[in-house]
Amino acid sequence: MTSLFVGIGKSWLEWRGKYKAAPQYNFKQDEIVSPPYLRKVSRISQATFVNLHPTHFAVAIAPDGRTINLKGGYNELSPGYYNIHYVDKQNRVNYIPRTEDVTLDGFKVAMELVISYRVIDPIKALEVQNPVDTLLRFIQANLKEFIRSHKYEQILGDVDGHKIDDEQVVIFIKERHIDRSPLARLFYIVDVVVKERIGDPKVIDLREKYQISQKQLDNQKSLQIMNQELEKKIADQDALIKQIKANSAATQQNIIQQMEMQKIELEKARAEFKYRQEIGGKAVDAIVQTLSNQTYPPDSAEYDVIRELLSELSASTFQNGETSKGSKSSKETAKASNPEKISELTNKLLNLNWHKPKPPA
Q1: Contact indicator for 60, 82 with CB cutoff of 8 Å
Q2: Does residue 88 contact residue 55 with C-beta atoms inside 8 Å?
Q3: CA pair distance 45, 76, nearest whole angstrom
Q4: Residue 316's closest CA among 272, 265, 256, 259?
Q5: 222 burial class (0-12, 13-18, 19+ CB within 10 angstroms)?
């Protein structure tokens, strides 16, 4: 008979519960457990039906003080009055305010974190007083410990920007949390985000001054390098100009020397031409004088001299007029021409004329 009533009660509870909407409790920022909801479990049904929202856990405190983790749907319970609490099941995000402490080398550093976490054991949520505040205070204490156990440049970075990355901060916080019971069984830390790192104002001021002086020094070095390069370019350009001037002077001197040589050769050629003209003129005068003598016509000796003299004059004329053409015959003819020979033949012809008998008066 009792089992019959239990079966009827179960069917009725399930029928009624399935048609009710699952209530959703809006948790505050620092709250993960709702206020208790009193529920009576009758002797007939010896059970209750829980319409559980997917973002909630449900925990019941039995009349004997035991804590029971309820599941969504039908739950068998002993008769009596139960306090039912909803526990937040979602990932939660909290801000860790600026936390300041002194580094290992004696400088002030402040850090700000954002932590995301969730409940993994809803029963433990009822066993820890102010669980969210407790978790955040412990994380803040861990953050202070992290600052105290590291040097300033490790946290904020050296002058070249080298520093501990955020992942090492996350690992440090999570490892400290795992070693902490019962919070480690209540909460699972999903992630830790380093929002900001704030350095000591004195160090920041010193670094800014150092960076300014370093920048000025770098600018001076760059300017010095530029000046050196410019001076080198100017020196190279001056050397090139001097070389060009030297080459130009040498070329000019060479041209002047060539012009002087040409001038000397021209004067020499003019003098030689003038000499040849004088010799040729005397030879022609001697020939005319010999041929124009009506009293004593030329004899065979004179004709021989005249022929030889005319041959030399012909060679000399050809040399003066056409040797510049550069032909082989002209060169050979020019070599055969001899002014001294012409002069000798002219004198010989004049002597022959001189030794002829004078005409009667």
Answers
A1: yes
A2: yes
A3: 8
A4: 272
A5: exposed
Q: Which amino acid, residue 115?
A: I
Which among 84, 85, 111, 114 is positioned nearest to 99, based on CA atoms? Answer: 111
Q: Give 122-174 pLDDT, tens digit per residue.
A: 999 999 999 999 999 999 999 999 999 999 989 988 777 788 899 999 999 99
Tell me 324's DSSP state. G
What's the alpha-carbon Rg for the chain, to the nearest Å? 65
Alpha carbon of residue 213 to chain centroid:
24
What are 19-50's pLDDT values in tens digits?
Answer: 778 889 999 999 999 999 999 998 888 889 99
SS3 46: coil
Instruction: State the first-to-last Cα distance of the chain, in angstroms, to the nearest integer.
Output: 207
The per-residue DSSP string of 114-144 comes to EEEEEES-HHHHHHSSSHHHHHHHHHHHHHH
Domains of the chain: 2-88 (no CATH), 92-199 (3.30.479.30), 269-354 (no CATH)
Coil, helix or strand for 113? strand
* Spatial separation of the C-alpha atoms in residues 301 and 290, rounded to whole Å: 12
3-state SS assignment for residue 36: coil
| Residue 33 DSSP class | B
**CA separation (Å) from 137 to 97, 99, 144?**
10, 11, 11
What's this model's pTM, rounded to 2 decimal places? 0.57
- Listed in sequence order, the DSSP H helices in the chain are 2-18, 122-127, 131-148, 152-156, 166-178, 183-186, 201-291, 300-322, 328-336, 339-354
The Cα 234–Cα 316 span in angstroms is 63
| Strands across the sheet containing 187-198 | 92-102, 108-119, 187-198
